Amino acid sequence: MLKVGIVGITGFTGLELLKLLLNHRYVEVDYIASRSQVGKRVCDVYPLFEGIYNKTIEPIDIDRISSLDAVFLALPHTVSASLVKDIYGKVRIIDLSADFRLLSAGEYERWYRVKHPAEHLLKRSVYGLVEINRGSIRDAELVANPGCYATSVILPVAPICEYIDGVVIADSKSGVSGAGRAAKEGLQFCEVNENFKAYSVYGHRHIPEMEEQLKRFNNDIKIEFIPHLLPLQRGILSTIYASLKEDVDVNGLYREFFKDSYFVRVADNPPGLNDVKGSNFCNIFARYDERTGKVVIISVIDNLIKGASGQAVQNLNVMFNLDEKEGLMPYPYYP
């Protein structure tokens, strides 16, 4: 039985992690911590756990973390890196922040507007997108869990990346939970309900993450990425457009690329958010439009599961040589 901890239990990703790990046959959630709500039972913060899991939220403690087999860090950017400096080498780490997703400290500073607190560890981290990096994750001491938007773009672009000519256009829409649990003016009910808008149109922080990972398939790749906010609780749908250098069997290419990836399903029809909501699946539909000469790809994920906590559990399973599916819901919930 693996003893694991969740640091940052009071956010949406911490909540989802606990829900998933309580269904994991080989995990005991021995430690939950937060920068707030210390001393409260987790069921006082999230009443859904009443009678299911009543542990008390502890302060962040390096000795407690070091006693675990693995720890999930669901902390804000830079806060996570400062903690990783103190615990690296003492426990295997799955970091859900953006602090170790980029290899370059300069790129991190450019996009996050702050000097990296632990840049000496950047080259020691492994990008935790299992479907393209499974082998490296197995032996990793520090896994950088991918961003939700990045997951929804990297997975559908990777199979066809080497054939792409020019800029990739990624038009993505996300539910409100992707912005986190903290109160923000632009995320109030009256701002979001019956509304639909683009944001970060001059450059979203997930762009360098997307490009860095896709350059392993095509060093000339460039992404034009525009995110939009949907008046929904959860889910991401990305519609992606690109020109190809040559004719390829698009459907066959995708099925071959993901033939050993249980959590990626190549669809025959355009998928919707209800096809994956509450699950760790990514559904992908791709077609080549002969009239325009463009490939059109649609991907859907649950931003809190495959885009965050479910992917983190998938990484844990790979790191400890467990069944990749362990602890992850086998099917989406519907309606």
Q: What's this model, at a glance?
A:
This protein has 335 residues and is of the alpha/beta class. The protein contains 11 helices and 13 strands.
Task: Describe the structure in your own words.
Helix 1 (12-21) packs across helix 11, helix 6 (130-138) packs parallel to helix 11 (305-319) and helix 7 (148-157) packs parallel to helix 9 (207-214). With 335 residues, the protein is α/β, with parallel strands linked by helices. A hairpin with a 4-residue loop joins strand 12 (282-289) and strand 13. The chain is built from eleven helices and 13 strands. The strands form two sheets. It has a seven-stranded mixed beta sheet with strand order 8-9-7-10-13-12-11. The longest helix has 15 residues, at 305-319. It folds into two domains: 2-146 and 306-319, Rossmann fold, CATH 3.40.50; 149-303, Dihydrodipicolinate Reductase, domain 2 (2-Layer Sandwich). The protein has helices at 12-21, 42-45, 62-66, 79-87, 105-112, 130-138, 148-157, 189-192, 207-214, 250-257, 305-319; strands at residues 2-7, 27-33, 70-73, 92-95, 126-127, 142-144, 164-174, 197-198, 222-229, 236-244, 264-266, 282-289, 294-301.
